[in-house]
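Two proteins, back to back. First:
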Amino acid sequence: MKSLKALQAALEKWMQDADRGRFFSPRTILAGLGAVYGGAMALRADLYRRGVLATRRLPCKVVSVGNLTLGGTGKTPTTMELARRIHAMGWRVAVVSRGYRGSAEDRGAVVSDGRRLLLSAAEAGDEPCLIARRLPGVPVVVGKDRWAAGMTAVQRFSSQVVILDDGFQHLRLNRDLDLLLFDAQAPLGNGRVFPGGRLREPSRAARRCDAVVRVSRGAGPEGGALNRPDGMADRPHFNLTLKAYPVAVLYGGADDPTVIPAAAFLAGRCCIAFSGIADNARFFDDVRRLGGEVAECFGFRDHHPYRRRDIDQVLAAARRTGAGCLVTTAKDAVRLEAFGPLAFPLVVIDLAPVWSDGGKGIQAFLDRRLGRSGSLESTHGAGDVRDGFPPSSSNVP
């Protein structure tokens, strides 16, 4: 579904440029197509609910993290945050992802056994590879067939809890807990289903969830009420802010410069920002907010498979503008490893989840719904869980 984001943007531009006065305007046509697609998605969900379409259950607990809209809503950072918390509760946890655009997506594969990274980003997909680097002690498995991937986690790693990254629409697999994420700025987009809007399925599908997470972007936790679909008042609601921060500087030159903190390195420095995520403009704003003097920006489509010409274009801009570094996201950074060290220092920006109540609410919810495992096998301290930051920057690609 993520590949539809770029198409959606093109369609929106087309609608804006079209003649609004025509009876069968592009907007009207797309709204009609969205109604048809939304009806099909609603019928599909109903058939699963009634048991007409078969579902399967894993021999372990299943926690799903997903959303209703196209594009990024912070699913991957939230998945990692929940994995840390549940792991710290004593459960043997594994993360299962589709492995979107990875060569192992169709056949399925183990990305990490919890100790070693076994696949590259090209094989596993960028998000599973990033998750594997950020979660020592937590196996990561990819595969289009989530049940088969989950069974691999259970059989090979004795996983007691499987967390589905982007699993809300994967109705073939039963789950014990469904968390639904909403972008605080535009929870339902324009309220219409793709291609007429950004919804993956009609908003009433939100009633399937067990809890709602309102995701904001900024410097700290934000509260406030969520503009949510009807019928959601009885669901637990949690507020989460994704805080952008420079997590590492990767040096590509022959000389080793004096190593300074990434935040201090970026502040006031002329840079070239580039990314291939769902919301590139938001990332560029983050770079500026963190003090980077952005000379030029390059935005690619989500999960963009970088080619040598893309890197050459970015490097040429850095030389032309006299930039002192390049800046990209953690998700993009794992896709750049195949190119080796770059000719400019590369600042990596990551997102840290920060709960409005310090995490007390979500922890109590997890304790209530999952309980504590009998044997505490966590390798992370409680502080790593509460503050939401990765336990160590040494795992940054």
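And the second protein:
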Amino acid sequence: MSATSLDKTPVASAAPHFNETLRQRLLELRAGPTKENYSNNKLAKKLGVNSSYVSQYCNGKEFSGDLAMFERKLEDFFRNEARRRASGVETISTDETRAVCNGLETLRKLNEIGCMVIVSGGGKSRAGEFYLRENPLAIYFHVRSWNNDKNSVEGALFKAVGQAGWDGQTKRAQFLIAKLAGSDRLLIVDDAHKLTKAALQWLVDFWEETLIPIALIGTPALHDLLMSDTQRFSRIQLWNEIQPSNPRTLITHLATSLMPELNGELESVCDLGEQIVGHEGCYRAVYKQFKLAEEIRAGAKKPITSVQAIRSAHTKLLRDWQLN
């Protein structure tokens, strides 16, 4: 889910019903050691709202905007923060993220529906996150095996844009069309190769009615899905296949983020990382091996080097090849 302007749907309330658990969580974050990262202005930019709403919410006495929408955005923000902390790796700009972001900008400017293909584990989801940081009005939907049907897509979009103005009788799709037609808001559909044909058709029909830009991001399997019915999906013309390149930058970032005690081994560790990318074809494999290696190194009874830990981790993962 991504940002929606709250200024258009003010719901003044003298006695708002705050989610106190959520509000206290925000207050604790703002009082913590990294509080400078969560000022009203910085947090408002992350949420895609006016900074006054952040101030009002923290104050807890009044709220002049759509409180339910604001709290949904805040919950989504905390989920993303939890994911970042759990991975232990901050998303950075790489050739891949820049290529994805450039492709998203092209679709946004042309108001087209198009595809971007990158191998699994090649950084497509991280690139989507990177784009959302600077473009909070974009709408983000991550397809999973349990939400890949057309009703789930429609429901997620309905939740993302909010129910303000809906009479409860109009079909959700018609309401969404009226809400988004001509808005130029980019809809990013991640792991689009998992969509059912009916869900993909829903998105094509929705694009025809609204002309909002839609980016379908997936693995090469997305090509097979589209070509299985070329007449139905012939409107999807823009295609951008992104090949991972210059892996050293991201591997270095993974190494320094996941393995803090390299002790002069950075170059050797990155050499091993490049071997992993070359054989496995994705950065996710490097992330998993480096993370496991650090667990092995930290838990070893006798001191071992990071290189030794990576080689040990290699034997504990599903690998059918040997490190040099």
